[in-house]
Amino acid sequence: MTALNIGDSRVIESREVGDGVTIRRRRETTDGKRFTTYERIEKPNLAVIKKDGTRELFDRDKLAIAVKRSVGKFFDSELEVERIISDVEDAVYALGETEILSKQIGDKVLDELAVKNEVAYVRFASVYHEFTTLDDFVKILEQRRQQQEGR
Q1: What pLDDT shows up at residue 147?
Q2: Are 70 and 106 in contact (CB under 8 A)?
Q3: What is the DSSP pairing of strand 47-49 with strand 9-16?
């Protein structure tokens, strides 16, 4: 397999991807080969403070894996899940902090799932809160019902 020399290429087509912050560009090299690139606005570094006190850089892909694993097939499309991930990411960066607790990220995910899909909400909560008994599920469901009645 030969490497594609993308150094000298031109843009044939550009379009915004569904999340509103990614641009898809269709390109062509001088020798006629075509390829696609995706460009995303680079965000500043954000440190996540984990439960054990360690710090690591915020990783959108890690967030996406956690959300996708917990929501299973409770959404009609991958785009809906991507929108949730983008909304959480935007909310985290909107705080304007250079460091954030991992708990705050988990809470933002729960906030998004609570209004979009209750089963996905409970699944994520079960992992996030490390449920070990059936009573843990009952407790989170009761809290969710109280939140709904309070609206």
Answers
A1: 78
A2: no
A3: unpaired
